[in-house]
């Protein structure tokens, strides 16, 4: 299957998965851009949508720190720096932090996790499976996601959703 077909088919399939709802992500992005930062409660909501079991960690962040870090993300250049800032907050490893970036700029960023990595591996963009991610891994994943986006005419966020859905459909056995 060629890449444009894969992305189109699996964007349609995505709504059948348990992935982060694109509409909800767009709402967070609208709020983030309007406020110029996110509050602890808003970060908690994003983390809860992404990973219910670790969202409670977000509540340990001081409110002022949440606002400061998310405001600084807007001022910083570079994918590594942006994701590294966000992962400095409790409850935000690279996959959850990627939700914040994808909400803020869906044209350039995608929600990433083990399913997205696995699909990029299946499509020969990456080599080998991975279960945990850091800022450098996000940069490793976002580069081919942007290549696929450019080739297919979709946003990076849409490509991420399609890659997630593809793994959800074809994976045999358990996720971890």
Number of strands: 0
Largest sheet: none
Which regions contain 5 or more consecutive residues with pLDDT less than 50?
none
C-alpha geometry: globular
Number of helices: 9
Nearest-angstrom radius of gyration?
15 Å
Terminal Cα separation, in Å? 26 Å
Quaternary state of this entry equals: single chain
Helix content: 55-70%
Please tell me the overall pLDDT: 93
Strand content: under 5%
Give me the strand/helix succession. Answer: HHHHHHHHH
Structural class: mainly alpha
Structure in words:
This protein is mainly alpha-helical and 176 residues long. It is built from nine helices and no strands. The longest helix has 18 residues. The radius of gyration is 15 Å and the shape is globular.
Brief sketch in words of this structure:
By secondary structure, the chain is an all-alpha fold.
Topology, please?
Layout: H1 3-14, H2 22-35, H3 40-50, H4 63-75, H5 79-87, H6 94-104, H7 114-122, H8 135-152, H9 156-170
Notable characteristics:
176 residues; mainly alpha; 9 helices; 0% strand; globular
């Amino acid at each position: 299957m060629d890449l444009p077909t894969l992305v189109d088919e699996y964007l349609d399939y995505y709504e059948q998965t348990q992935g982060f709802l694109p509409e909800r992500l767009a709402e967070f992005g609208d709020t983030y851009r309007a406020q110029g930062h996110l509050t602890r409660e808003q970060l908690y909501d994003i983390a809860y949508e992404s990973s219910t079991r670790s969202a409670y960690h977000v509540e340990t962040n001081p409110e002022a720190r949440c606002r400061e870090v998310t405001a600084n993300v807007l001022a910083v250049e570079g994918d590594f720096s942006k994701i590294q800032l966000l992962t400095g907050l409790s409850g935000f490893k690279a996959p959850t932090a990627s939700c914040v970036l994808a909400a803020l700029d869906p044209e350039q960023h995608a929600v990433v996790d083990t399913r997205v990595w696995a699909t990029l591996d299946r499509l020969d963009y990456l080599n080998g499976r991975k279960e945990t991610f850091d800022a450098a891994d996000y940069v490793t994943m976002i580069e081919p996601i942007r290549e696929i986006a450019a080739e297919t005419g979709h946003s990076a966020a849409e490509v991420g959703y399609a890659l997630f859905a593809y793994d959800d459909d074809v994976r045999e056995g358990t996720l971890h």
